[in-house]
Design a protein that fits this description.
Layout (H helix, E strand, L loop, with lengths): L1 H16 L3 H17 L3 H28 L17 H10 L3 H4 L3 E6 L5 H13 L5 E5 H13 L3 H9 L3 E5 L8 H14 L4 E6 L7 H4 L2 H12 L2 E6 L4 H28 L1
Parallel strand pairs: 1-4, 1-5, 2-3, 3-4
Helix pairs in contact: 2-3, 7-8, 7-9, 9-11
Length: 270
């Protein structure tokens, strides 16, 4: 008995040194299953290795999702793909494979407020984290403030380097809030820094023809658009507002309920 305990203790120590916590936790239970089902040594070892890999993969995905700052409620499962134009739905299928990250391509989503731009890009990004991809979500207004503070503190290069580790940077609502010229200069610096190095995914209510309102200068506007469009997939969501549709449905439901109740009362009275 002491000898078995000693052997188990030494094995646990070796597994700890090798950083195999899942194997250390489950090897005894798996050994019972192996004896019962007459596994050979290779099958037993394979099952242990598989358990270890699965736990590590799940842990990595959870870490990537935390670091991404993505709103996790905006998932692909919660997105109504039936609302998408056929072309955009086909583009979505390709984007979910993640090849655009390898090609350093950008994804640019345009449409009216409430059309689902942010939800769509966040849903794509969440699926990418399940593939082990590093992404980061940030509203444009917060991003430019962070870059501006970094420039003031002479740390802009450091902040750009921190963002460079992400394969995709999701910039939400560019142009939604009018920024100052200085703020747009630091945003342009970020776009230029990531050009052909890593992907940008962004949403905007403004078409390119109105981007001079964002960058304040025709030359800077043209240069920014050129860098974004050169390698890009453009998603045009020219569809009605989802929020407006849901609000209208809610109003219709409220209006229908009293009429239904009145008809039921009349039927009961008759």
């Amino acid at each position: 008995m002491h000898r078995e305990e000693d052997k188990s203790g030494r094995l646990n120590q070796r597994l700890k040194e090798l950083h195999l916590p899942t194997v250390r936790r489950c090897y005894q239970d798996e050994a019972i299953t192996a004896r019962r089902d007459n596994w050979d040594y290779e099958t037993y070892l394979y099952e242990l290795a598989t358990r270890e890999c699965e736990v590590r993969q799940n842990t990595r995905i959870a870490r990537l999702q935390r670091e991404s700052k993505l709103p996790l409620e905006k998932s692909l499962k919660a997105f109504d793909r039936k609302r998408l134009p056929r072309k955009v739905d086909a583009q979505l299928n390709l984007l979910l494979k993640g090849d655009f990250l390898d090609h350093k391509e950008n994804v640019l989503a345009f449409g009216h407020p409430g059309s689902g731009k942010t939800h769509l890009l966040c849903a794509i990004a969440q699926e990418l984290t399940h593939q082990g991809r590093q992404v980061r979500f940030i509203p444009c207004s917060l991003l430019v403030q962070e870059l501006l503070i970094a420039k003031r503190d002479l740390k802009l290069a450091r902040v750009l380097k921190q963002y460079a580790k992400y394969e995709a940077l999701i910039i939400d609502d560019i142009g939604y809030v009018q920024q100052s010229r200085e703020e747009m200069e630091v945003l342009f610096t970020l776009l230029a820094d990531r050009y052909e190095r890593s992907s940008i995914m962004l949403t905007s209510n403004l078409p390119f023809s109105k981007w001079e309102q964002i960058f304040k200068d025709p030359m800077t506007t043209a240069a920014a658009i050129d860098r974004l469009v050169h390698h890009s997939v453009i998603l045009e969501l020219n569809i009605p507002s989802y929020r407006l549709e849901q609000s209208q449905k809610a109003k219709e439901t409220v209006a229908i309920q009293p009429a239904q109740a009145e008809r039921q009362e009349q039927q009961t009275a008759n």
